[in-house]
Every structure is written in structure tokens, then in C-alpha cells.
Write a structure and sequence with these properties.
Blueprint lengths: L1 E4 L1 E4 L2 E9 L14 H30 L1 H15 L1 H13 L4 H17 L4 H21 L13 E5 L4 H6 L5 E6 L7 H9 L3 E3 L4 H4 L5 E5 L4 E4 L3 H22 L15 E6 L5 H6 L5 E5 L1 H5 L7 H14 L4 E5 L26 H7 L1 H14 L4 E6 L5 H20 L9 E6 L2 H5 L1 H5 L4 E4 L1 H9 L17 H16 L4 E3 L10 H7 L3 E4 L4 H10 L2
Parallel strand pairs: 3-4, 4-5, 5-6, 9-10, 9-16, 10-11, 11-12, 12-13, 13-14, 14-15, 15-16
Antiparallel strand pairs: 1-8, 2-6, 3-7, 7-8
Helix pairs in contact: 1-2, 1-3, 1-5, 2-5, 3-4, 4-5, 12-14, 13-14, 14-15
Bound molecules: phosphoenolpyruvate and magnesium ion (MG).
């Protein structure tokens, strides 16, 4: 048995045979042509077929995950029709008598190198699209069938990397899960794959060296562990775990429409944490009572420049409408630290987690903040939206942030643009300073949400990003729990509700404690909702 470790993208377990997807660009024999006119025709036919294929993929992606993510196929189509690109291939065929495959291969190398050499990170990333369209051309030149929809029985797909168009070509019923050697949890391809809801682990070192076709493999999407040729004991343990999960999922669906209420009648709301509209299907599927944390920065992280007011408005409105009047708490931009935007030149910092981030940026650059607030306020006319500020440390910061909201409200009023005038404003409590002065902060807001990820990091002075420190990073530390307790007490003393939206909220070892404290709401990843509801309903 070989155990490899990667980064989790989607939590689930899959057990099955490996199919290696390896569309080698050099997988052709013919290097030159004997009749350039025929060869040009072959290329042009493949180009047309590739364009038609991209149009289909665009429509498929548009329906599955929306326009924003489908746009990648439109970009690829434009590249495939680009005159420089096409003429360079045609010149190689007609002037150097190369085969269409060889010409495409050379164009792939030249154009991807060109994009890679550019300064702009968005343009650099386009080199991946060049590879993608060239693979597609080679695919049609070889007149292959779709390798990715052609498995006779469901497989675990192993690839060096998967492009957005390859993900969209997958026949979901034929794939149990994916593992890739490259990739990152935030790439376009990963976002599309996550929306398919299959176990997925990326960035698995040495994967292609160790995996072979038909080898038995296990993906543990919860831990990021990959077991190749598992021994009998591991296979039994993981099979049992998978069956238990399937059974649990079935049982849990019966809890839809029910409350998270203990046997003694103590109720707590369970909301969802989301990062984009892509998380809406699982939020609705798992019957969230609201959205407790919309990490709005993911809208910014997926773009090549600041998303416009209109782009943001559409995203916020989509979420508000989908939730049908249930609460939707949109956290304002929380960039900086580990969430840097390539197009927003944040200065390099020695201690980024203690640096220029979140509300500090928004207060110093109100023009960015105001665009987001306009979008949120406009969307508030379409549902039950609240605004929440991240990384607040003082009453002054809170007052300044609220003043900017008021200022934006006045502009909207003057422009006769509708918004919810009594929109609720809340703050995250994620620094010890905020927790300690929560009595003062509570007087300024309509609700609190405790961010235990950062509260733990700042209370214990342990960088949450540093994997070497993970044994020390414990939100169970008495100091963290005391700060949570203090915050809840101060919220209730001032008559406002308090939720928890850090990872700790889903930790069922603390559910009883949170109920005892009187926490009003727990906001968790959509996949954890029914599990947590089940736990609460089982308590006395
Ligand atoms: C937190 O800090 O607990 C939180 C919910 O915010 P994030 O994880 O996005 O920093
Ligand atoms: Mg935080």
C-alpha cells in the first residue's frame, strides 16, 4: 500500500479502480505532411469541431454553474479563433510542411511561453488555456472519442491536472472521484469540480509516478489521504466508513424541514458558510436556516480586477433571492494576510496576519468599500440581507464603518435606488480585543458572529497557516472558550443575538457547551448542517 497526501477539495470517500487520464500532446506519429492542402483542411476541420465543442461546453457550464464560470470557454473559443494563433499554425503546415499535430504542438509551446512571460498574473494563467485548446485540437485531429466520458464502469480519475473544459466533459455517472498531482483548491477547474460534488484531492506529490491504470485506490476527501493498492485492513476500514457515510447521509435527509432543537426544547439556528453562489445548491440541499457567513472576498479572489458594483450586486441578489427571506449575512471584504489579490498591490509584510487586512483596508480605501456596500445595499431590496464587518478591534472602527454605510445609503436615496433602510449591521468578534470590549461593541450593532479561526490564532499567538504549529492550535484552550463565553454574555446583556461562524461551530464536542452558553446560531459548511442538526436533536 502507498499512502499519499494532498489537499482536500470536496469531503467524501471514494473507492474504485484508477483510470489515468493522460492526453499527451506528443502522442502522434506523423511529424511532416506530404500534401499541405490536405493538412490545412485537417487542421481547419479540427478547429471547427473544437469551436463547436467549446460552445457546447459553454452552454453546459452556463446551466450547471452560471455565466461567470462558463466564461472561460468563451475565452478559449476566442483564442482558438485568434488570427495570430491560427495563422502561425497554418504557416507551419504550408511553409514548413509539418503535420497539423506537430504544428499545433509547436504553437502550444510558443503561445503558452508567450503568456507565461507576461507580467500580469491573469495573462500568465492564460497559458493553461493555450494547453487546453491545443489538447482539444489534437483530440479532434486524432478523431478520438471523448476519453473522459468513455469509461465502461465508474472510475477514480487520476490526472496530472484537469482543465475546466476537461472537468465539464466528464460524465459524472462514470466518475467516483478525482485526484490530481497539480492543482490548487482555488483554481477555476477545482471550483467547477467542487460544484459536481465528488470527492476530490489535489496537489498530491508523486501521484503520477505511483498510480497505474486499474489499480485499486481510496480517496479520503476528509483528510486528503490517498491510498493506492490499499491493504486489506485499510480497505475494510474505509469501506465501512464509506458505507456508514452513505447510510448517515440517507438518515440525515429525513431531518430536512426539522428544527435544531434539543429534547428539552432548547433551539439553536444552523446557518451555512458560503464563498460564492456556487455554494447555493448545497446550502439549499442541506436545508440551511440562513447564511451566517458569506465570505465575499471569494468574489474578488476569482477575478482579474476588482469586481464591479454590478457583478457584486448580481451575486448578492442571487443569494438573497435563493434564500427566500431567510437571513443572509454578507461579510464585507476580508482580504489581506493569506488572501491577497494579485491585482491589488498589497505591500509585502513581515507579519501579514497582523497586517494590513480586512476592515483596515476598507477604512483606509473607502472607494473600494463603498462599491461593495452599494452592491450589498442594492441587493438588500431582494431579500433578508445583513452586513457584517471583519476584524473589528474598536468602537471607533465600528463607528467609522457604520458612517460609511450611512453615507452610501444617502447616495442611493438621492439616486432613487431601492434598498432595505433598516438593514441590520453586525460585527465579527475575532480578536481578543473585540471579545474583551464586546460589551461596548454590542451597543453599536444588531448582532455578533464569533470567528473562532482568527480568535484562536490571535488569542494563542499561533499562525493558523503554519502547519508545523497545528498541534498547538487548539480552540479548546480555556482562554479561547472564556472569550467566547464573555462575548455571548455581553451580546445577551445588550439584547443582541450572537452566532459562531468559525470552524469550531461544527465541532460536535462543543455543541452542548454552546447550547449551555445560549449561542443563538451556528454557521457551518453546508455539508455539516444536517449532521449538526442530528446531534442537537439527540441531546437532552
Ligand atoms: C474566522 O476567523 O473564524 C472566520 C470565520 O473568518 P475566516 O476563517 O474567513 O478568517
Ligand atoms: Mg476570520
Amino acid at each position: 500500500m502507498i499512502i499519499l497526501k494532498g489537499q482536500r477539495v470536496f469531503d467524501d470517500i471514494a473507492i474504485g479502480s484508477i483510470a489515468i487520464y493522460n492526453p499527451s500532446l506528443n502522442n502522434f506519429k506523423q511529424q511532416s505532411n506530404s500534401n499541405f492542402k490536405n493538412e490545412l483542411l485537417r487542421f481547419q476541420t479540427a478547429q471547427q469541431a473544437a469551436i463547436e465543442d467549446l460552445k457546447k461546453l459553454y452552454n453546459k457550464a452556463y446551466q450547471a454553474v452560471g455565466e461567470k464560470y462558463a466564461a472561460i470557454f468563451e475565452v478559449q473559443q476566442m483564442m482558438l479563433e485568434d488570427l495570430d494563433f491560427v495563422e502561425s499554425i497554418e504557416a507551419l503546415i504550408s511553409e514548413q510542411n509539418l503535420s497539423a499535430e506537430k504544428a499545433v504542438n509547436i504553437a502550444d509551446e510558443n503561445f503558452s511561453a508567450l503568456f507565461e512571460s507576461m507580467d500580469d498574473s491573469y495573462m500568465q494563467a492564460r497559458s493553461q488555456d493555450v494547453h487546453d485548446i491545443c489538447s482539444k485540437l489534437l483530440f479532434f485531429l486524432a478523431d478520438k472519442r471523448n476519453l473522459l466520458a468513455d469509461f465502461s464502469s465508474p472510475v477514480i480519475l487520476v490526472a496530472n491536472d484537469l482543465s475546466p473544459s476537461e472537468i465539464m466533459q466528464l460524465d459524472k455517472t462514470k466518475v467516483l472521484g478525482f485526484i490530481t498531482q497539480l492543482g490548487s483548491p482555488n483554481s477555476h477547474a477545482t471550483i467547477l469540480a467542487r460544484a459536481l460534488g465528488l470527492p476530490f484531492v489535489v496537489a498530491v506529490d508523486n501521484l503520477m509516478f505511483n498510480a497505474t491504470n486499474n489499480m485499486l485506490a481510496i480517496i479520503d476527501g476528509f483528510t486528503g489521504n490517498i491510498y493506492l493498492a490499499p491493504d486489506e485492513k485499510t480497505l475494510n476500514v474505509m469501506t465501512n466508513k464509506m458505507h456508514a457515510l452513505q447510510q448517515e447521509k440517507l438518515t440525515l435527509t429525513k431531518l430536512k424541514g426539522k428544527k435544531a432543537i434539543t429534547k428539552a426544547g432548547k433551539e439553536i439556528k444552523i446557518f451555512a458558510n458560503i464563498g460564492s453562489t456556487l455554494d447555493l445548491p448545497s446550502t439549499l440541499e442541506n436545508d440551511a436556516e440562513g447564511i451566517g457567513l458569506f465570505r465575499s472576498e471569494f468574489l474578488y479572489l476569482g477575478e482579474k480586477s476588482f469586481p464591479t458594483e454590478e457583478q457584486q450586486f448580481i451575486a448578492y441578489k442571487t443569494v438573497a433571492k435563493a434564500m427566500y427571506g431567510k437571513p443572509v449575512i454578507i461579510r464585507t471584504l476580508d482580504i489581506g494576510s493569506d488572501k491577497s489579490l494579485p491585482y491589488f498591490n498589497l505591500p509585502p509584510e513581515i507579519n501579514p496576519a497582523l497586517g494590513y487586512r480586512a476592515i483596515r483596508i476598507c477604512l483606509q480605501q473607502p472607494e473600494i468599500f463603498k462599491i461593495q456596500l452599494r452592491a450589498i445595499l442594492r441587493a438588500s431590496a431582494f431579500g433578508n440581507i445583513s452586513i457584517m464587518f471583519p476584524m473589528i478591534n474598536s468602537v471607533e472602527e465600528l463607528k467609522s464603518s457604520k458612517a460609511i454605510v450611512e453615507n452610501v445609503k444617502v447616495s442611493l436615496q438621492q439616486e432613487n435606488i431601492p434598498f432595505s433602510s433598516n438593514i441590520k449591521i453586525g460585527t465579527m468578534i475575532e480578536t481578543p480585543a473585540a471579545a474583551i470590549i464586546s460589551d461596548d461593541l454590542a451597543k453599536e450593532v444588531d448582532f455578533f458572529s464569533i470567528g473562532t479561526n482568527d480568535l484562536t490564532q490571535y488569542t494563542l499567538a499561533i499562525d493558523r497557516q503554519n502547519k508545523n504549529l497545528s498541534p498547538f492550535f487548539t480552540p479548546y484552550h480555556k482562554a479561547v472558550l472564556k472569550l467566547i463565553e464573555l462575548t455571548v454574555k455581553n451580546a445577551h446583556k445588550n439584547g443582541i443575538p450572537v452566532g459562531i461562524c468559525g470552524e469550531l461551530s461544527a465541532d460536535t464536542k462543543l455543541t452542548t457547551k454552546f447550547l449551555e452558553l445560549g449561542v443563538d446560531e451556528l454557521s457551518v459548511s453546508p455539508n455539516c448542517i444536517l449532521h449538526l442538526r442530528n446531534k442537537i436533536r439527540s441531546l437532552d
